Each structure stands twice: as structure tokens, then as C-alpha cells.
Amino acid sequence: MFKVILLAVMLAGALPAAVAADGAQLYGQHCAACHGLHGEGGVGVPLALPDFLSTADDDFLRKTLRNGRPGRVMPAFRSLADAEVEAIVGHLRSFAKPDAPAARAPSSARVHGDVEKGRALFAQHCAACHGANGEGGHGTGVTFSRPRDLPIMPPALNNAGFLAAASDAMIKATLMRGREGTPMISYLDQGLSEQDINNIVAFVRSFEASAPAQPPPLDEPMILEAESSYSLEETVENMKRAAIGKNFRLIREQRLEHGFFPEGEENAKQVIVYFCNFNFINQALSLDPRVGLFLPCRVTVVEQDGVVKVLSINPKHLSALYNNRELDAACDEMTELYEGILEEATL
Ligand code: HEC
Ligand code: HEC
């Protein structure tokens, strides 16, 4: 009897660990927003492509999840448990058609080629899409703003995350075969020889020496804040003038509590001014559609205990969260504009 109870207790204790991590659920939670629920792509590149799934070995997938692609939007998932990573990899495999060839076995075999010959071939055949130094195409994944002849962003190849994950064999197979349904075509079909392709693989591998380092950790304040030496009303007027002076167009001014209280009863000492610059919005959206979350620009002016303050989000802080090196430059510019407007309105 005692033994039976003990066994039951042991089984109960073992249960949580025995519940397998659910790959579909984890994928839905961590990946689908960017890669699409069925791997069709979005802010992220497609993952369900047959040529991708058959050339990417499990090791490539695991390492890509763990290390991400520094500065190229794809986050590093360091805090997932190993079992969770395996479950997600299993889920990616479920995107493959039942009759698809088995996934490639991981291989650490080196492909030998002539780096200098590879450099010339890369400039001729690859640089137009992947950048002269393999820095990748502009924008993100598969987006509405992409030119029709280039519907998918060419990934960065001089990226520490990519280079650490991809084996020579995988890079070679990608070049030999291409990825049907994307602008990445087969270079065997294009008339390159296997030796040419080996030379290009050797050149891509040589990026390891120059791949940009991981961006420094986030140390930007979340909010930009300035105390005004004017009254609330004057500060709001200054704000509008400063924004217009910097080529922004005013969209509207409203009380912070607008919509939460009957009209006229909102706190008149808390005002938001919305403004935008359509060129900037279009440029930023084509780099990363997620900036839609903090555009149009808005600045809040509040008066509390006789002190008037002007507050805005800090685009640099948000940009650091997005892991998008291209967006960083636009956000630096935006932060400078905000700081200029805040200063002009309050000093
Ligand atoms: C914030 C958006 C975003 C999220 C979230 C995201 N990814 Fe990505 N992922 C990307 C982008 C963008 C790329 C292409 C990077 C480049 O340009 O080099 C990418 C690349 C990849 C690649 C390499 C694809 C290839 O063709 O080599 C894999 C595999 C991948 N992601 C899997 C995942 C998985 C699995 C998750 C969830 C655990 C995930 N990603 C979450 C945006 C994202
Ligand atoms: C017309 C544009 C274009 C050209 C030219 C091109 N590529 Fe690509 N390449 C892409 C796109 C787009 C992808 C992403 C495909 C996808 O969604 O999986 C890609 C994917 C890749 C990948 C896989 C990257 C990853 O993250 O898994 C490698 C490696 C690659 N290309 C290397 C090359 C090399 C080397 C050349 C020259 C021989 C080349 N490409 C030429 C557009 C191009």
C-alpha cells in the first residue's frame, strides 16, 4: 500500500516536467507576429519555404533562435528552456509538406574555396541584393512597401548570428539550389560552376572577421522630459510653433483624458499635441512597420503643483528594443528633433 502511494506521489511530482513543451503554442507566442502563423513571413522572412526547410539543419534553427541576428530585427531567444527551443524547431519542421525530402543532417565539414575569386563573384552576383559587404537589404521581411521585383528582404550575410548558425554546407546548398518562391535563385541554374560556388562560400565565411559587434545594451531613458519656464498655455503654443519650424505638420491638440470623461470635464492641465512629417513617417515605416506604434509624433504638456513639464517618448530607447540597426539612425534623428522641440518650447 505504502509503495502504491509513494509511486503516485512520485508520478504527480514528475508530471510538470513530463508535459512536453508545446511547439505550436510557443511559436504562436514568440514568432508568429513576425513570421506569420504558418511561416508565410511578415516583419520576418518566410520560414515555410520547402527549399529553406530542406537546406536548414536543426542546428542552424536552434542557433538562429538562441543568437538571433544582432541589429537585424530577429531577436535572440536566450531565456527559453532547451526543451522549448526543441519544441519550436519541431514546429518549424511541421511546416514541411509530408512528401518533402528529409531535413539535412548537421555538418561541420568546411567548403574550400578561393576567397579572392569569391569576392569578385559576390560583387557581380550578390551585392546588388545582399549589399557590397553582405550587410543585407533595406527594410524588414516581407512588407507592403517592398518593390514588386524584390518582395523579400535579402538577409544580412555579414551577421554574427547568421555566420555562427549557418554551416558551409548550408550556405552552399542555398546557392546551389536557391529558394523557390523568393528572389534568391539557384546559381547553378545561373551558370556558375560548383567551384565558383565554393569560392563564394569561402568569401561569405570570411565576413566572420568583420561582422559588426552586438549593439551595446540599452541605456537610454524611456522618456524625454523638460521643465518649462512658461505657463501651460504658452508652452503648448511654443510647442506647436517649434514643431512647425522643424517641418512638422500639426495634426491635433487634445486633452490627455479625452474620451475618458465627458467633454469639458477632462483635466485642462494635461494636453497632448500630435504632429507628423509624412516623409519621415513613410521612410520610417518602410524601414520597420513596427514604428507605427509610436507615430505620429506626440508630446504631452502637463501642469502639476504649478510646475509645467513637457514629456515625450524617447525614440532611441524604442529603437534599441527593436534590434534594427537601420532604424537606429532614423530614431537618432527623431530623438534629436524631439529634443530640439522640447528645448525650444520650454527655455
Ligand atoms: C521582431 C520580429 C521577429 C521575431 C519576433 C522573430 N523573428 Fe525570426 N527573423 C526575423 C527577421 C527580420 C529575420 C531575417 C533577419 C535578417 O535580415 O538577417 C529572421 C530570421 C529568422 C530565421 C532565419 C531564416 C533564414 O532564412 O535563414 C529563423 C530560422 C527565424 N527567424 C526563426 C524565428 C523563430 C522560430 C522565432 C520565434 C522563437 C522568431 N524567428 C522570432 C524577425 C523576427
Ligand atoms: C535578387 C536578389 C538576390 C540576389 C541577387 C541574391 N540573393 Fe541571396 N537571398 C535573397 C533573398 C530575398 C533571400 C531570403 C530568401 C528567404 O526568404 O528565405 C536570400 C537568402 C540568401 C541566403 C540565406 C540567408 C539566411 O539567412 O538563411 C544566403 C546564404 C544567400 N542568400 C546568399 C546569396 C549569395 C552568396 C548570392 C550571390 C551568389 C545571393 N544570395 C544572391 C536575395 C538575393
Question: Gist?
Answer:
The chain is an alpha+beta fold and 347 residues long. It is 44% helix and 10% strand.
Secondary structure layout plus pairing:
Blueprint (H helix, E strand, L loop, with lengths): L1 H17 L4 H8 L1 H4 L14 H6 L2 H10 L14 H12 L21 H11 L1 H4 L29 H6 L2 H10 L16 H12 L17 E6 L3 H14 L3 E7 L14 E7 L1 H10 L9 E8 L2 E7 L1 H8 L2 H22 L1
Helix pairs in contact: 2-6, 7-11, 10-11, 12-15, 14-15
In words, what does this structure look like?
With 347 residues, this protein is α+β, with helices and mostly antiparallel strands. It folds into 2 domains: 191 residues, no CATH class; 124 residues, TATA-Binding Protein (2-Layer Sandwich), CATH 3.30.310.70. The protein contains 15 helices and 5 strands. It has a 5-stranded antiparallel sheet with strand order 1-5-4-3-2. Helix 10 crosses helix 11. It is elongated. One heme C binds next to helix 3 and helix 5.
Keywords:
single chain, 347 residues, alpha+beta, TATA-Binding Protein, 2 domains, 5-stranded antiparallel sheet, 15 helices, elongated, binds heme C
Which descriptor suits the 3D outline? elongated
Secondary structure category: alpha+beta
Which value, in Å, is the CA radius of gyration? 26 Å
Mean pLDDT: 88
Low-confidence stretches: 4-18
E-strand count = 5
Largest sheet: 5 strands, antiparallel
List the ions, cofactors and other small molecules found in this model.
heme C
Number of domains: 2
What is the string of SSEs from the N terminus onward? HHHHHHHHHHHEHEEHEEHH
Give the termini distance in whole angstroms. 82 Å
- Per DSSP, the total helix count is 15
Beta-strand portion reads 5-15%
Strand order of the largest sheet: 1-5-4-3-2
Helix content: 40-55%
